Amino acid sequence: MIHLKDKILKEFNNLEKVVTKINNTLELIDKRDNDIYFDSLISALTLYLENFYMGVERIFVLIAKQIDQTTPSGKNWHLQLLSQMLIEIPSIRCTVISQQTYENLNEFRGFRHVARSLYAYDLEPKRVIDLADKINQCHENFKTDIEIFLNTL
């Protein structure tokens, strides 16, 4: 389990960097001086938000493979994986995330799906900014849940 913890902690370091990038980009959006610059910042923010959820998923896949011994597949595997982390598996592991964290992360999962299927210029900037504004709370909730989970290993 030590190897698993190390991998999860490495991913957490990456998530910290992404959250910092999101916060820095949000600050720049407030100081924008032209539309092209604004569009570039929205595109960057979109990429960082996708990166955040992909990092979360990497942690979930590690847990699913190494502890649960099963990973979802098929069309809705992203949602199934997130849901898998919400349930306790008796004699194997406790829940990985709380209901609140699940709801927060599900919003990021949904955004990632939309962002991957549209051109960046088709995304509504307000939606991107509103989601980015939620990153710190979501990240803190996720971090707390994972720390609790890791202490049970």
Number of domains: 1
Secondary-structure element pattern, one letter each: HHHHHH
Radius of gyration: 16 Å
What is the arithmetic mean of pLDDT? 94
Q: Which architecture does the CATH hierarchy give at level 2?
A: Up-down Bundle
Classify the helix fraction into a percent range: over 70%
Give the CATH topology: Four Helix Bundle (Hemerythrin (Met), subunit A)
Structural class: mainly alpha
Strand content: under 5%
User: Looking at the structure, what is the overall shape?
Assistant: elongated
Uncertain runs: none
Could you give the distance between the termini?
Answer: 7 Å
Q: What is the chains' assembly state?
A: single chain
Count of DSSP E strands?
Answer: 0
DSSP helix count? 6
User: Main beta sheet, described?
Assistant: none
Instruction: Look at the structure and give the CATH class.
Output: Mainly Alpha
Report on the architecture of this protein:
The model has no long low-confidence stretch (mean pLDDT 94). Helix 2 (35-68) crosses helix 5 (125-132), helix 3 packs antiparallel against helix 4 and helix 4 (99-117) packs across helix 6. The chain has 153 residues and is mostly helical. The chain has one domain: Four Helix Bundle (Hemerythrin (Met), subunit A). The protein is 75% helix and 0% strand.
